Amino acid sequence: MIVRRRGNRFILIKQHDHALISGEFAARLNQKIEPRAKTLYAISHHDVGWIELDQTILWNEQTNEPYSFNDYPLLPKLEAYTQGISRVEAHDPYAGFLCSKHFASFFTNVSDPAARRFHEQELARQDQLKKHFSEAEEQNSADNFRLLQFCDDLSLSLCLNEPQQNTHPWYADGIDYHGRKVKWVWEDEQSLRLVPNLFSTSFTFEIPYQVADSSRRLVSRNVFRCRVLA
């Protein structure tokens, strides 16, 4: 889950829902993507490993808050990453490669043995998958990996902030992309734009979310709709 506190309640967004939004952003960026379908599939489905974990809310007994993707217990998270990458790879090996690169990048300098094993496992997976790349896949893999990371950050920056705010420390100064800072600027409670603008047309997206209270009750479900202005 992506978790943010709102008073004595918690806004919960499922990881796969966030990933689908990142795919929408990628599909609408004003840039050429090659191979397009495979790359967009990777971006939209990079968090499929979280689908089963996000069926239930796991509570941190020490803080009495829901675990987020950031502090979720490591071993089940690594297992979910592995299974998710494999699911994407089964659909398309190139998409699986991009997802493997994405998750392996979280564990480049770690001391935990399980995290190190995961990192080594994914590097080995990538080496095998690269052997079957087409010329276009090889030439564009680095750019498409950066695109996945950028669109992931675009979506996360919205999910981690309240509407009309941009205070989360990860993204308050913008998101790096091709040597420049990209920022969301809110026009009102339900519309915003990128600065500099990277979209060719305006569009609307939706973020499904749940609300839980500190008594661990699921209070409501809703959808936040937002317009991106080009």
Describe the structure.
Pfam families: DUF3891 (PF13030). It comes from Paenactinomyces guangxiensis. InterPro entries: DUF3891. The chain has six helices and nine strands; from the N terminus they run ββααββααααβββββ. It has 230 residues and is α+β, with helices and mostly antiparallel strands. The protein has one domain. The longest helix is centred in the middle third of the chain and has 25 residues. The protein is globular and about 50 Å long. The two termini are 29 Å apart. The model has no long low-confidence stretch (mean pLDDT 97).
Determine the oligomeric state from the structure.
single chain
Terminal CA distance: 29 Å
Which structural class best describes the helix and strand composition?
Answer: alpha+beta
Which stretches of 5+ consecutive residues score pLDDT under 50?
none
Q: What overall geometry do the principal axes of the alpha carbons give?
A: globular
DSSP strand count: 9
**Secondary-structure element sequence?**
EEHHEEHHHHEEEEE
Described by strand count, sense and barrel closure, the largest sheet is: 7 strands, mixed
Question: Number of helix segments?
Answer: 6
Helix content: 40-55%
Radius of gyration: 18 Å
Whole-number average pLDDT?
Answer: 97
What is the percentage of strand-forming residues?
A: 15-25%
Return the domain count. 1
Going across the major beta sheet, what is the strand order?
Answer: 1-2-8-9-7-6-5
Protein name: DUF3891 family protein
